[in-house]
Amino acid sequence: MSSNGGSIQLTAQPRTEKKGSALRGLRLKGRIPAVVYGSELEGTPVHVDAKEFNKVVRTGRSEVFNLTVEGGEAIPVIIKDYQQRDNQWLHADFLKISKNKPLRVRVSIDYQGTPVGTKTGGILQIQETEVEVEGLPADLPSTIEVDVSALDVGDKLSASDLKLPKGVTLHVPEEELLASIIVPRAVEVENAAIAGDAAATEGTVASENKES
């Protein structure tokens, strides 16, 4: 992988191997079996260097970069999908894109800050780490930042609370739950027990006062 004028470049080699044993052999050599497809481009089997691919993944799945299949021209693509197991890349899908056509992708959510509710025993429970959005490739963010520091116990964060860049639209229900501040079950049980003891004590005192 290289960077040319701020544009990330990744080189791929044509792939003829399709059987499981051959694909495992590629992975043992530090290569990742992949497919390139998209508008006016049939699915083309290729393989890329695992270490270089890892660097591209870090920029985000919505980041457009140039993929050059050995012997051909560089084409703008995004990482449409990938499979990973036990920290090993198994397969990747590269989608050729048009810079003038809207693109629908899943973008990572970057939760920032320490929720105020966690300081009083609450726990930040994250339901979603990605959200689907649509926009022109140049407008798509690599991640969507959201500040959760104001969340208190019982508060919830929904998809509608996300602030998207201009020209980017949400493609999940606005009410979809992304994160919330919950009370641990053990704390709930303890609080219920304390409340029960307090109620019992009040009842005993009231009974004694009545008898006297």
From TrEMBL:
Comp. bias intervals (Polar residues): 1-14
A GO BP annotation: translation
Pfam families linked to this entry: Ribosomal_L25p, Ribosomal_TL5_C
Region (Disordered): 1-21
Location of the Large ribosomal subunit protein bL25 beta domain: 103-185
A GO term, aspect molecular function: structural constituent of ribosome
InterPro entries named in the record: Rbsml_bL25/Gln-tRNA_synth_N, Ribosomal_bL25/Gln-tRNA_synth, Ribosomal_bL25_b-dom, Ribosomal_bL25_C, Ribosomal_bL25_long, Ribosomal_L25_dom, Ribosomal_uL5_bac-type
Domain of life: Bacteria
GO cellular component: cytosolic large ribosomal subunit
Keywords, in A-Z order: Ribonucleoprotein, Ribosomal protein, RNA-binding, rRNA-binding
Protein biosynthesis in keyword set: no
Domain (Large ribosomal subunit protein bL25 L25) ranges: 10-94
SUBUNIT field: Part of the 50S ribosomal subunit; part of the 5S rRNA/L5/L18/L25 subcomplex. Contacts the 5S rRNA. Binds to the 5S rRNA independently of L5 and L18.
Family: Belongs to the bacterial ribosomal protein bL25 family. CTC subfamily.
Free-text function comment from the UniProt entry: This is one of the proteins that binds to the 5S RNA in the ribosome where it forms part of the central protuberance.
Annotated protein name in UniProt: Large ribosomal subunit protein bL25
Species of provenance: Paenibacillus terrae
The gene coding this protein: rplY
